[in-house]
Amino acid sequence: MDPLSDIISLLRPSAAVSKPISARGRWAVHYDAHDAPGFTIILSGEAWLTFEGKEPLRLAEGDFLLLPTTPAFSLASEPHLPAAPVTPRDEAVRHGDPDGPPDFMALGGSFAIERVNAPLLLSLLPKLIHIPASEGRSTRFGRLTDLLAEECTTDHPGKELIIRRMLEVLLVEALRWRRLGSEIVPAGLLGGLQDPAIVRVLQAIHADVRAGWTVAELARVAGMSRSAFSARFGEVLGCAPFEYLVRWRMAIAKDALARGNKTLDRIAEEIGYESASAFSTAFRKRLGYPPGKFARAAHLSPCDLR
């Protein structure tokens, strides 16, 4: 699989909560941070999103917003209004004037993800992905959001299932969005996927993670000198090439340990270690405890760890 598909496969995202959000008049609400990816699709009207220390961001009809991790934020009918604290709920919410037709409507919610590798994998993604309707409307992404908005207004059988599946597809589309400006793509995987030389290296690593890659070999894949490649990789990905390889190997190992369906020998072989002992040593050095302890913490039977 390609690098992004590998990352998403380990995260195993699913739309855990999706709910309609509506409002009327002047209003402002504040949500505390939570550790699940959040999303919002603006169905009609507009609102202003503000993160602590940042300028308000205008969200208009057709816009899509994805937060791989969700910091504290305020949502309001206009910028700089005092915000009332609210608690996230799994049901439809109404802000502002409770009477009359809403002048703002959105679909918001969160994704459930596999927790074992969430901190590492989410660190490879930008903090915010905002796809304005003006950029996404004429693309497949725009067509998907239109279909989702249409589904939200119907009462057809299977509506909830369709919405969940479409949200999962939108998540993947958002993560591979090619028009993300440099201002919202810090060092990480998405930046690497937009760099032709670096993406060749990422594809090579993910295609054969067990190979004994050296920086010189990866530089040849990139078509660059070793020094230029190391500098470029660090700038784009935020870590050294070998560090990325080790992180990815450990992510695969942690996922396998959590599932409990492979022996240590098998895991070691699949990610490029000569033996279970060599893998265990590397795992302990990286995480501070042995694979067996990690697996037991994931409620696995010791017999799965031979």
From TrEMBL:
<dbReference type="Pfam" id="PF12852">
    <property type="entry name" value="Cupin_6"/>
</dbReference>
<dbReference type="GO" id="GO:0043565">
    <property type="term" value="F:sequence-specific DNA binding"/>
</dbReference>
<dbReference type="InterPro" id="IPR011051">
    <property type="entry name" value="RmlC_Cupin_sf"/>
</dbReference>
<dbReference type="InterPro" id="IPR050204">
    <property type="entry name" value="AraC_XylS_family_regulators"/>
</dbReference>
<dbReference type="InterPro" id="IPR032783">
    <property type="entry name" value="AraC_lig"/>
</dbReference>
<feature type="domain" description="HTH araC/xylS-type">
    <location>
        <begin position="199"/>
        <end position="297"/>
    </location>
</feature>
<keyword id="KW-0804">Transcription</keyword>
<dbReference type="InterPro" id="IPR018062">
    <property type="entry name" value="HTH_AraC-typ_CS"/>
</dbReference>
<keyword id="KW-0238">DNA-binding</keyword>
<dbReference type="GO" id="GO:0003700">
    <property type="term" value="F:DNA-binding transcription factor activity"/>
</dbReference>
<keyword id="KW-0805">Transcription regulation</keyword>
<dbReference type="InterPro" id="IPR018060">
    <property type="entry name" value="HTH_AraC"/>
</dbReference>
<protein>
    <submittedName>
        <fullName>AraC family transcriptional regulator</fullName>
    </submittedName>
</protein>
<dbReference type="InterPro" id="IPR009057">
    <property type="entry name" value="Homeodomain-like_sf"/>
</dbReference>
<dbReference type="Pfam" id="PF12833">
    <property type="entry name" value="HTH_18"/>
</dbReference>
